[in-house]
Amino acid sequence: MEIKKRRRRTGKKARRNRIIVILSGVLAVFAIVLVGAMMGWLLIGDRSKTPEEEAIEQEILFEASLEEEEEKNDEYINESTIDSIVKGGHTVSEALMQRPATVEMTPENTAEFAMIENCSINKSGKVEVIVTSDGIPKSDDKYYYLFEEAVYDDGIVEGSEPIAKVYKSDDTSFAVDLNKGAANSRLFSKFQVAVKMDDKYVSISHAKYITNPGACAGYSYGGMQHRSIKGLLPDPLRIGELADLGCQYATYNIPLNHILVTSGGIPYTYGGVTYHFNAQIMNDYDHLFTRLNSMGIDVAAIILNNASTAAYPEITHPSARSGSTAPYYMFNATNESGVKALAAIGSFLANRYSGSGHGNVSMWIIANEVNARKEYNYMTHTDVNTYTVAFTRAFRVFYNAIKSQNSAAKVYIPIDQRWTYNTEKTGDYDAKDVLDIFAASLSEYGNIDWGLAAHPYSFPNGNTAFWKSSKYVNHSDTTPCITMDNIEVLTNYMKRPEMLDTSGNVRSIILSEIGYSSTSGQDLQAAAFAYAYVKMEKNGYIDALMLSRQTDAGDEIAALGLALGLQTTGGGKKHIWNVFKYIDTDKRNEVISFAYDIVGTTF
Fold first, then answer.
1. DSSP one-letter string for 421-489
2. Which residues of 479-512 are buried (b: 16+ CB within 10 A; e: fewer)?
3. DSSP 8-state class, residue 370
4. CA 404, 410, 414, 420 torsion: positive or negative?
5. Is the distance from CB of 600 to CB of 467 less than 8 angstroms?
6. Torsion on CA atoms 348, 354, 357, 360, rounded to nearest 10
7. Contacts of 165 (CB under 8 A, 6+ apart)
8. Which helix (H) or strand (E) holds 288?
9. DSSP readout, 30-93?
10. Could you tell me which residues come within 8 angstroms of residue 158 by beta carbon, excluding any fewer than 6 positions away?
11. With contact defined as beta carbons under 8 Å apart, do 439 and 392 qualify?
C-alpha cells in the first residue's frame, strides 16, 4: 500500500514518523556493525576503510537523502523500497559477521600460516597464485603481499619489493604477468606470500613454483602409438637397420659442448640473452631425428653437460668446474646466468624438436645416472641432500623450459642400479636416497609430472646371468641393487603415494639403458635379453626400454670387457639380433625357446 505524502503538517509528520522508526532500526543495525567492523580492523592494524565499510557508509548516505527528498517533494515511497533497504543492511551485517577470525602471529604459526593451494598459468596466460588460510593474520595493514623468488633464493631477499597485493581473506588469489621468454620471465620463479609486520615484510607461506608450464606451450606433440616397448641405442652409421629390427624407441645423447658456440651458428635469444648453437651439428640432429621418426621410432634425447670449460661455463655448477676427470658435470642453477642458460638450452631444444619440421623428441632425459656423482654427474663431494637439491633445482628449470615449448613432452631423471648399495665411501650416492630427496623436494615446492629413467643393469655389469642368486639382489625395497631379476621392487616403490604424479597415477618409467654382454657367450647374452624383455612386458609399468646397444663399442670392450651390442664392431650379427627383431612378433616363441634351458625356467 502506498503512503501518500500530504501537504497538511499533521499527516506529513505522521508519515515521517513511521519512516523514521523503520530507518532508525536499520541505522542502529548499521551503527553496531560499523563499530564492530572498525574495532576488528583496528585489531588487525588497519584504520583505512574496507569495502564493507564503504558499503555501509553509502547506505547511510542514501537513507539521509531519502529523508531530505521527503521534505522537498510530494512523491510516493512504497514498502518494497523500505524492505530492500532493510534486507541490504542484513546482508552487509551478515557478511561482516562471517569474516574469518583474526589470528595473532607467533614464531610457531607465522612461517606457514597461509598455504599456496595452487600456482599455475591460468586461461588468460597469467600466473595465478591461490592462497588459503585458517583465519586472517594480524599485521600492520589489510593486505597479503606476493613476492617472486629466483630458483637459487631461499626466502624473500632483503630489500626486494612485492609484485602484487590483495585484501586479506582466508581464500583469495593473485594474478601476475608470466612474461614468457622475456628478461623478467616468471616461468622459472617461485612465489611466496607475506604480510607487513612492524613495517617489515614477513613470509607466511611456503614457496611454490608454477606447476603447469605446458599451459603456455606452442606445441603439444607427444609420442607415437607403438606395438611394443622395444628400443635401442642406435649406431648412427647403421640407422637404416633399425627398420628391419622393428625398433620402436631410440635414445641419443646431446652433449652440450657439441652444440654450443660463442658466436655465429643459430642465434637464440631467451631471457634477454642471445645464445648460439652450432648450425652443422643441429642440422645433423635434425636429419637423425627426422629419419628415426619416419621409421616410426620415438626419440629419447639425453642432455649431457660436458661443457665445464667450453663456450658457456655458467651452465656448470660452481662446485663442478675443476677437480675431476668425469665426462659430465652438475648443471648450474645457483645464479641468474646459470638459470638463464639452462632455460635457454631447454627451450631451444624442445622448440626445435616438437614436430616443427626438425623431427620430434618425445622424451628428454636430464643428465646421466645422477646418483653416480663421481663417474657421471660430477660436483665436489657433499652430503646427499645438498647434492640432490642442486640437481633438483636444475631439473625443474629444464622441465619448465621443455614443457613450456611442448606440453606433451616427458622429462626424466636417470638413476643407475645401485639402489641402497652404500657407495658414499667411494663418492657416489644410493639411487634410492637421491630419488626420495628429489621427489620430496619437487612435491614440497609444487609437484610436477617428472618421469623415471632407470638403468637396471646386472651387478656387476658383466654378470649377464642376472637370474642367478646374488648377495646384491633381493626382493625387498632395501635391496642393494635393482636388476631385471627384481625389477618389481622399483615399480612397486613408484606406486607409493609420495611417488605418484599430479593425477595420482604411477609416473612414466622407462629403462633408458640396459644391456647384456656377449663376453661369456652369445647364447647367454641372447637368453638374458629374452628373459628380461618378457619380465619387463609382464610388469606392466614400463613404458619403453632402450637396449644398449646396436653395435659393440670398442672402448667399452677394452676398458670394461663389455660387448653389449646386437652386432660386433665389424657389423657381424650376434644371436641376440634375431631375438631382438622377433620378440614382439608372432615368432616370439620360436626365437626365445632356446633360452628356457639356459635360464632354467619357461617364461
1. ---GGGT---HHHHHHHHHHHHHHTT----EEEE----SSTT---TTS--TT--SSTT-SB--TTSHHH
2. bbbbbbbbbebbbebbeeeebbeeeeebbbbbbb
3. T
4. positive
5. yes
6. 110
7. 143, 144, 145, 146
8. helix 279-294
9. HHHHHHHHHHHHHHHT--SPPHHHHHHHHHHHHHHHHHHHHHH---EE-HHHHHHHHHHHHHHH
10. none
11. no
- Name the β-bridge partners of 390: none
User: For residues 406 and 216, what is the distance between their CA atoms, to the nearest angstrom?
Assistant: 9
* Those residues with Cβ within 8 angstroms of residue 574's Cβ, 6 or more apart along the chain or in another chain: 518, 522, 525, 526, 565, 566, 567, 568
pLDDT digits (tens, 9 = 90+) for 543-567: 999 999 999 999 999 999 999 999 9
Q: List pLDDT tens digits, range 466-522.
A: 999 999 999 999 999 999 999 999 999 999 999 999 999 999 999 999 999 999 999
Using N-to-C axis directions, what is the helix angle for 51-72 and 9-44, rounded to 10°? 170
Q: Count Cα neighbours of 559 within 13 Å in the Cβ-side half-sphere.
A: 5
Peptide bond into 456 cis (omega under 30): no
The average pLDDT across 360-368 equals 98
Considering the entire predicted model, what is its pTM? 0.86
| Cβ atoms 284, 258 nearer than 8 A | no
| Alpha-carbon distances of 451 from 347, 414, 435, rounded to whole Å | 19, 9, 11
Per DSSP, the three-state class of 280 is helix
Which residues are CB-contacts of 371 (< 8 A; sequence separation ≥ 6)? 377, 415, 416, 418, 428, 429, 430, 431, 433, 434
Domain 225-599 homologous superfamily, CATH: Glycosidases (3.20.20.80)
Place of cell 552487509: 92
Kindly report, residue by residue over 384-394, the tens digit of the pLDDT: 999 999 999 99
Tell me the three cell numbers of residue 405. 615449448
The helix (run of H) or strand (run of E) holding residue 536 is: helix 522-539
Which 8-state DSSP code applies to residue 237?
Answer: G
**H helix count then E strand count, the chain:** 16, 23
Helix (H, G, I), strand (E, B) or coil at 2: coil
Residues 385-410 as b/e (b if ≥16 CB within 10 A, e otherwise) read eebbebbbbbbbbbbbbbbbbbbbbb
Strands (E), 80-185: 102-103, 114-121, 126-133, 136-137, 143-149, 164-167, 171-177
- The angle that helices 522-539 and 575-582 make with each other, rounded to 10 degrees, is 20
In angstroms, rounded to a whole number, what is the distance separating the alpha carbons of residues 349 and 355?
A: 12
Residue type at 284? Answer: D
DSSP 109: T
